[in-house]
């Protein structure tokens, strides 16, 4: 039995990322749903939504925070100072804080808490909801190996885990934290193209979806380089070569590189906006 079965976990911020994690944790039964709760900024309807979907508990804020073994910080980076100020008096150095905030350093979070609780910075993605997140974790200065083990167990329940140095988390954010959105954007573009070339939207969607699932499984299961798999599709003088030549002409690779670099730069910028106070 996982040690997490005896832990209580509170999400501070009940938005998309918190829901993706709650959904994954409840689905895997890693922590009983009555030992999970979430706190929002006054939006009771949202909490009720999570309660009805996942059967999580609804303790009062004091009990939710003071009674939690693990607090997952899941507000937007701009809201973290206020969110922690509202709960700080209820927290203790024995609790484990797991942050999913883009750009925000563990030192800054420790400075907001004002004590030496363990803080672990992570970057999951919303595919946690179906157990397929790609999550990177980095320990803050007060986190022990035992704290890391707990965090690893939580994120392994909702996908794969990589341990990185904290300064690499900006790169992870631009690559795999934001990554699902790049894929959805590609699907949007393919769907639009599908309609413009005369296919019904629903037909196009089914074909695109299966194409993406198939390609993802090929990448995962066949152990081949993406370039090798691409070449297998690309008959000389054929349709794929004709299409990819246009992608090259429009600077597809440069666009992807610039996109990811810009996302990384934004994560770094968000980090600089949160300057440690001690
Ligand atoms: N959405 C995504 O794909 C990913 C998001 N993240 C990170 O997760 C965090 C949350 O992002 P989302 O869930 O997308 O945002 P969201 O906007 O969906 O959720 C944020 C939640 O925090 C609540 N909140 C705001 N101020 C609060 C306060 N003072 N006290 C308590 N709750 C408060 C809001 O009411 C809202 O429900 C961000 O820091 C983001 O960088 C990380 C990985 C992926
Ligand atoms: O867009 C954002 O800032 C968050 C972080 C990674 C994915 N979504």
From TrEMBL:
One GO process term, biological-process aspect: L-proline biosynthetic process
Record InterPro entries: 6-PGluconate_DH-like_C_sf, NAD(P)-bd_dom_sf, P5C_Rdtase_cat_N, P5CR-like_CS, P5CR_dimer, Pyrroline-COOH_reductase
Compartmental location: Cytoplasm
Record's catalysed reaction(s): L-proline + NAD(+) = (S)-1-pyrroline-5-carboxylate + NADH + 2 H(+); L-proline + NADP(+) = (S)-1-pyrroline-5-carboxylate + NADPH + 2 H(+)
Database matches in Pfam families: F420_oxidored, P5CR_dimer
All copies of domain Pyrroline-5-carboxylate reductase catalytic N-terminal, residue ranges: 8-103
Pyrroline-5-carboxylate reductase dimerisation domain span: 166-270
Pathway(s) the chain acts in: Amino-acid biosynthesis; L-proline biosynthesis; L-proline from L-glutamate 5-semialdehyde: step 1/1
GO terms under cellular component: cytoplasm
Biological role: Catalyzes the reduction of 1-pyrroline-5-carboxylate (PCA) to L-proline.
NCBIfam families named in the record: proC (TIGR00112)
Record-given protein name: Pyrroline-5-carboxylate reductase
Lineage: Bacteria, Bacillati, Bacillota, Bacilli, Bacillales
Chain's gene name: proC_1
